[in-house]
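Lab notebook, bench 4. We co-purified these components, and the gel suggests they stay together. Before we commit to crystallization screens, I want a quick structural picture of the whole thing.
Request: model the full complex, all chains together.
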Amino acid sequence: MKVLEVDKISKLYKNGRGIKEFSFEIEEGDVVGLLGPNGSGKTTCMKIIGGICGADSGSVKIFGVDTEEDRETAMRDVGCLIELPAIYGYLSAKKQLMMMAQIYEDIDESRVDEVLKIVGLDMYKKDKAGRFSLGMKQRLGIAMALLSNPKLIILDEPINGLDIEGIVEIREIITALSEKGVTFLISSHIASELEKVCSKVAVVHQGELLSFENVDKALEFNPTLEEYFLSKIKEKRGSIIV
Amino acid sequence: MSENENSSLSSGKNGAVFMQKLRLFFVLFKNELMKLGAKKKYIVFFIIGTAICLINLGFKMLVKLISSGFSGGIMGNIFKTGSMTLSMLGFFTEIFIPFIAFLAASDLIGNEYQSGSIRALLIRPVSRTKIYFSKILAVFSVCVISFLGIYAVNLILDAITGNLSGADFVYSLSVYIIDVIPVLLTVLLAVFINCLCKSSGMSMFISIVVYAALKVGGIFIPSLSGLLFTGYTQWHSLWLGTSLPFTVILGKLMLIIGYATVLASGGYYIFLKSDF
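Here is the predicted assembly.
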């Protein structure tokens, strides 16, 4: 079953950056990594999928529903953490999760407590999120993404600001959920991290999608994903260093 | 299945979808109100408003005391100082409530644009239309609550000082209810400016400057005052105690609806097209 269909989406910012005709499809249970350097277009791609910004052209379908045509249905089973965690600093961690939970008919307080426990914030649930460290904010952002028991989770640089323990925990959450059939789209510029959790990888560079491959296949002729990424860059530019 | 059964099933489904959308809108509205309620500054502003009413009452009593040549003492001059609800109305409709509107709009829109927290809603299964209109309704509700709260304070002061009769109560209540309607235009102006500026500080500053300019413009160019919505902050003057022809009232009503449509749709368009 196709969970996400991205068809020729383009977005050009005033500074000349953006993405050009991204197309890919994600099947149920896939863990797809968007691999690329900072400013390559990973976040822009995720923002368009998540509805935070509009595309100049192209379309996005989630569970077969066009996000432009019926956003409420398309996003019903999606959880996102895009760029910085979108949190209300003046509200407690639990209060803002409760606020978001009300949007969904079947999410109650017990689920809020559950996700707070999953991300290790249950001790701090009454503290105002504005006082959290970067890592704690990131954990809260992940809790917000997990809240609605989504079938597709979009995580943009999920390990940003996390300590080693936090990185391992997030990796374990991703692995456990993907085993249950949850689909992931994860962006990172750290190839080794994606290699540990992803089943497919997409290489993004300077606004172009250079490849979309199974991780196993990508590692057939390359010892690591990093090498695979560099080989794709070399293929495109002729050399790695400009 | 007959055609009738099909059509009743379809209308039942449409009804359920509509109720679901309505529920979602009210959840968003409640959340927006909760966000504003979590900020103590609105309580502080209400206390300031109450203090202004008390200061005004004290000033009125002082004037009465002086004008009576101090005969009757303080207790003799507390009573019958004139209606507080109506004497404070101008200040609240023209300065205090618009300020609350600018503040609430900058908290719910400008500040959320700036901090990126608006994304928490955009990534949820809710349309931007619902987000936009729930924010407008929340800002307007805060203005209405503040306005009626201040009215209640003045009503209590009027009751204490013996300035309240049954007829006064009905009249002042009608005045406040009518005057709260044009507040919506101030709210829409504030929301429009916030959608345009995408920053809380800048929006607040521009909102105040634009509002003051419109107010002053109406004073210095009298021919403009009838065309500017800021000239209708005391809207009750059109409806109560006057005998304006219905066509004139209708014309002014249309003008206000026109302003509301332009401001609401302008802000809506910007909000829909914004990247966050």
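Residues 164-179 of chain A form the longest helix (16 residues). Worth comparing against the SEC data before the next meeting. Chain A has nine helices and ten strands.
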